[in-house]
Automatic annotation (TrEMBL):
Record-annotated DUF5615 domain positions: 1-110
InterPro entries from the UniProt entry: DUF5615
Pfam families per UniProt: DUF5615
Organism per entry: Symplocastrum torsivum CPER-KK1
Name by which UniProt lists this protein: DUF5615 family PIN-like protein
Superkingdom, taxonomy of origin: Bacteria
Length: 117
C-alpha cells in the first residue's frame, strides 16, 4: 500500500511502515520538506494514489469538499508518544490495510478504527 505521511507525524512512522513492506513517503522527504503545501500533498496523493496519513483537519475538509487527497487516514489520538503511535499503527495495520482497500476515509483513534462513508 502507498502512503504519504504528513508533517505532524514522525518520520519514524514512515520508516516503520516501510519496514513491513509499504511504499511510504514522509513530507520531510519532499523537496519543500515539512513546508510542502497541502495542495501539493494532495496532488502527489492523487498522481501516485497515495493515502495521506495526517492529524491535520484541513485535509478532512479538502477530502469532503473536493475528494482530495486520494484517500485519507486521519489520526485523532491527540497527544501521544511517538512509540505509542507507532505501536498503535503496527497493532492495527492489517485491519487498516483491509479497510483502506475498500474505503476512502478512515479515522484512527486511540481506541477505534472508524470507517466514514
Amino acid at each position: 500500500m502507498k502512503f504519504l505521511v504528513d508533517a505532524q507525524l514522525p518520520l519514524r512512522l514512515a520508516y516503520r511502515l516501510r519496514d513491513v513492506g509499504h511504499d511510504v513517503l514522509h513530507t520531510r522527504e519532499l523537496p519543500r520538506q515539512n513546508s510542502t503545501p497541502d495542495s501539493a500533498i494532495n496532488q502527489i496523493s492523487l498522481e501516485q494514489e497515495r493515502i495521506v496519513i495526517t492529524k491535520d483537519l484541513d485535509f478532512l475538509e479538502s477530502f469532503l469538499i473536493r475528494q482530495q487527497p486520494y484517500k485519507l487516514l486521519l489520526v485523532t489520538t491527540g497527544n501521544i508518544k511517538n512509540s505509542d503511535l507507532e505501536a498503535l499503527f503496527l497493532n492495527n495495520l492489517s485491519q487498516l490495510v483491509e479497510l483502506l482497500e475498500q474505503h476512502n476515509y478512515i479515522e484512527l483513534s486511540r481506541n477505534a478504527l472508524i470507517v466514514h462513508q
